[in-house]
Amino acid sequence: MSPTRKVISNKEQIPVNKMLFCSLCKGKLYAPSAYQVNGRIYHTSCVVCFNCRQDVSKSYHTVGRGIFCTNCYQEIYSPICFQCSNPILNNQSVIVHNCVYHTECLECPYCNKRIVLGEEKLPPLVMGLSLNKIL
After folding, report:
1. Which domain holds residue 125?
2. Closest CA to 6 of 57, 87, 68
């Protein structure tokens, strides 16, 4: 089962009315405000990507308790193309027999000719057996 993924565009600011501790560094939160991300409270400076430690003030993705910048999230969690082994970073993909491909990597397993989606005349073998689902 794939992990639950939630995309949040802005950090939710919460007031600090009592002594709280940062979920990342465990330090006391003395500032008049802190940030709550995915139910946990952080210093403003501690809301960083769990992978590369870059600031995620503009947008971030959460997986479990992890906070990731968009680049790291895509690198870690994007599906991998069965043909070229590179991550699929956009929705231009095709699933064939439970394998994910970039649309530009899809080719006939018999003649290695590239299959272009949307062409009117695909071989019956391809139409009947190969293309299961287009994302």
Report:
1. 93-134
2. 68
Q: Are residues 23 and 73 in the same domain?
A: yes
Query: In this structure, are 10 and 52 located in the same domain?
Result: yes
Q: Under a CB-based contact definition with an 8 Å cutoff, are residues 82 and 99 in contact? A: yes
**Is 84 part of a structural domain of the chain?**
no
DSSP helix/strand/coil, 48: strand
Into how many domains does the chain fold? 2
CB of 49 closer than 8 Å to CB of 72: yes
Strand order across the beta sheet in which 12-15 lies: 12-15, 33-37, 40-42
Specify whether the CB–CB gap between 27 and 21 falls below 8 A: yes
* Locus of tokens 């939710």: 12
Inter-residue contact 69 to 56 (CB < 8 Å): yes
pTM over 0.85: no
Which residue, 70, 51, 50, is CA-closest to 60? Answer: 70
Residue-wise pLDDT for 69-116, tens only, equals 988 988 888 899 999 998 888 777 888 888 888 888 888 878 888 888
Reported for 109-115, long-range contacts at CB under 8 A and 24+ positions apart, including other chains, are none
